[in-house]
Amino acid sequence: MADLYDGPIIDAHHHFWDPLRNHHPWLSGAENIPFRYGDYSAIKRPYYPDDYMADAGEHQVVATVYVETEWDPRDPIGETAFIHEVALRYGAPNAVVAQAWLDAPDAAQVLAAQAAFQRVRSVRHKPGGPASPAEVGTQRTLMSDEGWRRGYTELSRHGLHFDLQTPWWNLPEAIELARDFPGTQLILNHAGLPSDRSEQGLSGWHAAMAKLAECENVAVKVSGIGLPGRRWCVEDNAWIVRETIAIFGAERVMFASNFPVDSLCGSFDDIYGGFKRIVADLPRHQQQQLFHDNARRLYRTVADVIRIPELSDLRTTT
C-alpha cells in the first residue's frame, strides 16, 4: 500500500463556539431541532481551538477555516468579532466564512462590515427550499429569489466568496447562480449532502455534481458526509470521496472535518485518517492540493501557525 499523506493540513470547514457565553438558537436550551445526525446534545458545549487540537491529535493541522455557526441572526457582526477575538488569542482560525442574510434589507451594509474584518473570506446563507427530490418543482430555494440575488451581487464588490450548503437536488439552481455570477467563487459545502446512499440517490447526486462541475467558478468541500447511526468509515464513504475528486479534479476539492459536528459520527482520526487511506494512491502533489493547497489558495489563510496557550480567559468557566 502507498504511504499515507503525512504533510500539512488546512481544515477547510469547522466550527468553534461557546453556547454558555453566546446565543446560538440551535445550541441553546434542552430541546434539539431536527438534525441529519439525530441527537446532537453531545456538542452543545463550548468548543475552542484547544479542544479542536486535542481532537486533531497527530494530524498535522497548520491552519483552519471557521464557518459560521447559526449564531443569533440579529447579530451577524457579533459572531465575526467573537471569532476574531478567538483568533487573536489562539492563532486560529486562519480564515472565516461569516454569517450574512443576503435577502435582509441591510445585506449590503452587513457584507461591507464583514469584509472589513481581517480574516473574512466568504459568507454563508443556507438557501432552504425543497427538502427532498420529490419536492423539486413545487418550490424554489432563495438562490432564485430576486431580493436574495441582489444581496449576492454585493459579494464581488468586496471580493467575497459564497459558501453554499444545499442538498444535491437543488444544484440546478446553484448552476444558474454560478453562471449568472461568474466573477464570484462558489464553494459547495459537504459535497452536496449525499445522505441517500441508495442506487437512485447516488445516481441523482452524481449527475447533479457533474453538471455543477461544468461551472469553473465552483469548488467543493468533502466534509459532513457521515451517516446517522453509523461510525464514519472508509467503506461507507470512499466512493463519494473518489467520485467528487474525479468530477471536479483534485485542484477544486478540499478536505474538511466539520468538527465538532461530525464528532457525532466519528473521531477526527476516523475522518482524516479515512481521507488519507482513500487517496493514498493519488500522486503526492494531488494529495497536498486536497489536504492543504486548495484551501490555502481559495481562503487565503492568514498564517499557517496555530498556538494554544496554557490558559485562556476567553473560555467560559463553569
Describe it for me?
- This protein is an alpha/beta fold and 318 residues long.
- The protein has a single domain (9-303), classed as TIM Barrel (Alpha-Beta Barrel), CATH 3.20.20.140.
- Helix content is 35%, strand content 12%.
- It is built from nine helices and eight strands.
- It has helices at 49-56, 76-90, 107-115, 146-157, 171-180, 199-212, 234-248, 268-278, 284-299; strands at residues 9-14, 61-67, 95-99, 120-124, 161-164, 186-188, 218-222, 253-255.
- Strands 1-2-3-4-5-6-7-8 form an eight-stranded parallel sheet.
- The protein is globular.
- 45% of the residues are buried.
Tell me the CATH topology: TIM Barrel
- Please describe the biggest sheet, giving its number of strands, its sense, and whether it closes into a barrel: 8 strands, parallel
DSSP summary: helix tally: 9
Number of strands: 8
CATH architecture, by name, is Alpha-Beta Barrel
Helix fraction bin: 25-40%
Residue share in β-strands: 5-15%
By oligomeric state, this entry counts as single chain
Structural class: alpha/beta
The CATH homologous superfamily is named Metal-dependent hydrolases
Return the CATH class.
Alpha Beta
In total, how many domains does the architecture comprise? 1
